[in-house]
Amino acid sequence: MTDYREHIVKSFDEEIANVIHLTTQMATLVEEQYKLLYHVVDTGSPSTTEDILENEPKLDNYDAEIRDAVITLITLRSPVAVDLRDILTSLRISTDLERLGDYAKNIAMRVATLEEIPETHIKNDILRLLNLVQVQLKKVIDAYVSKDIKKAEEVLKNDLEIDKNYNVIYEEIVDLIKGKVTKLRLLTYTKLLFAIKTLERAGDHIGNIAEEIHFIVTGEHIDLKPESKENNLEDALEDSNK
Amino acid sequence: MNSVSLRNKKEKRFQMYGMTAVIVAISFLGILLFNIFSTGISAFKQTYVAVNLNIPLDINKSEINPRAELNKSFLKMFPEIQSRTERRAALSLLSKGARYEFEELLDENEGKSIEGYHWFLASADLDMYIKGTVKRQGDTAGRIDENQMKFVDQLESKNLIELQSNKYLLSSADSREPEMAGIRGAIIGSLYSILIAFLVSFPLAVMAAVYLEKIASKNRFSDLIETNINNLAAVPSIVFGLLGLAIFLNFFELPRSAPLVGGLTLALMTLPTIVIAARAAIKSVPPSIEEAAIGMGASKVQTIFGFTLPLAMPGILTGTIIGIAQAIGETAPLLMIGMVAFVVDVPGGPMDASTALPVQIYLWADSPERAFTERTSAAIMVLLTFLILLNLTAIYLRKKLEKKW
Amino acid sequence: MAENLKVSIKNLDVHYGDKQALFNVNLNIMEKEVTSLIGPSGCGKSTLLKCINRMNDLVEICKIRGQILLDSEDINEASQDPVLLRMKIGMVFQKPNPFPKSIYDNVAFGPKLHGMAKSKEELDQIVIQSLSKSGLYEEVKDRLFEPGTGLSGGQQQRLCIARALAVNPQILLMDEPCSALDPIATAKIEDLIAELKQQYTIVIVTHSMQQAARVSDRTAYMHMGELVETGLTKTIFSNPQHEKTQDYITGRIG
Asked: Which of A152, A208, B386, C26 is most buried by its number of CB atoms within 10 A?
């Protein structure tokens, strides 16, 4: 945990700890959602999808609780400096977490309703991508709990991996679409494209969380996200003309 | 609950002790005041004898010998008088000052005839009998012998003896004859002394207090001075008298018995009292006001005279008046510098020989004549009145000036 | 915010007898800004404030070493007159201390003392202007000759501010000016400070961090006679450099 000294008013410490605790718990639940998602992608199990859906309202609850706790803290305690950063960024992180939970739900819904079973190598690639996201998620949660900016910086760097993987699968599926496909198959591939795009988005949000953690600890903004193809118009144009 | 009732009993007992102490103190005061009052009240009246006069218009007033004329008129009222003893007895019923009253009467009635009964001051002996201070025993009363008593009875039966207000008490100076003795000289002497004491001690004391409190640096030396001033206030007043004798009379050779010297000596006495009161008053001025003034760019002197002193004035004045009230009643130092002399004139100025109220009281108290007893008490009453007035002034001033902030 | 240096305090050591109250303080006060001094009790902030207008001269056992430059001139030099200095630097105290005089006379005191008005009309003008600048004129214009001590606490403090402004100072020193006032009076004074800083350089000592945060442009944090950190207020309160500063402002030490 942090090595900051205690506040003179102990209840202040308790209230900040509560916000961090709520955020951590929300993050843990999101981790759980992605674990369930892996199972859904692997087996297409409808009951697991149900489980993911059932957890959604709990995530919304956490979101609301965190928001209320932060507003109360600001109103009643007038926090400054590190205390203020702690709770304000926890608020922002909870938004990112809520998005991540949403993505897990969306991907699960899509995969569960796929028209046809995709090629095995595609499924395995997607599972690998999903695994990367899970690893990043765990790492960023650890970094948040222990305020470890080294871990946060690693997460930011590894986002590049996720982008790379995403691009590979993207190309694969596009290649398949370019070939001869039935309408149903095309629908399947389209849904898969959406799914992997969402996973790539999830990686971005995890990167956001890593940036927030850096801000909490240092009070400074940094943008360590490496250049990806998405931000480079030239490269993108070049690709599309291939 | 036993301890509570015990405590209540203790409280009640304590209250009772307090009440008792107050009652005892007030009783003593009451007895003292009653004593003085009952003795002195009679001094404000004086016995007068009516004499039948017959001074025709055309007599040249300047040729009249007032004493002889008055005596003649008086003796005419007792046609049966034959011997010289009887004559002397009768005439001694009148005061020696009666002739001056007769002179005044003549002057007032320039160009007029004087007819009928006029009142003249009686002797002290007669006065004592009439007032009842000296009791009648058979045919004598005190110094009034049988011969005189005959005439006294006659006069009384004809209502020719009366108690009138004693105009000599407050308007004349001291005299050998008690019936003519007054405290005017003493009052004026006291007033001059006090005035000089005030004029000398007040500015000196206030400036000294200002210097010690505000300007001098606080170190061992200033502590020493503070201790010494506090001690001076406790020095017996007779020591100041000796000091006055040595310095003002012997060294400076100022006139003996003058209120100037008395005032200077009293000034020395009241100086420490006023310094102590002024220091306390100056200390009690809240420093915030002075800080504000200095913060505005006022110099130390401007702050002291513009703010500190005006705010300290109530306390300074109260202390001054208490000091003055003390000084009015001081006898010992005035005795040492010679204001004990028997002075018959009301002093014209502070350099004239004079006496002071407490000294006058001392002198009269010392006199064997009965008539001076009541006068001593009367003089004490006058002195006490002054003190009460001064204290009331102190209270009034303090209340009035306190409101300002 | 102007960026000119108004007061420069260099290597300031202050001793009260044997006890040292300030240790090597270096601080710059910028012109027409509000600089606040914060810190726990006994940290020396009032002492530092009083050095600026030489009020510490009143305390005999106080010894000062170091330089305090007002517009590049050392105020403690023997040739400098503290009386003139206090015309340039006004002071407002913790407990409002109007003189036991009328409202008019309170404000007129300074100008009269220093001969700033040549006629009664001029003096009237100065009084009205000062009272207006401190936001008090409308409330007291009908009772200018009533005693200043009859006003409420907040009004009295504004009267003291008007009194200080009447001599046209360059700097206004405020020693916990609101600590004896209720929240509304406090807010009025804070509003006044925001206006006054357009014309005057203000240094304020305050116990309330929130007040320092609301009111000042720059903040200096002091601890046990040392100046720990100084900087823009928003930086000090959002991301201070020193752990001691952060501990104080977040309530981790007294």
From this structure: A152
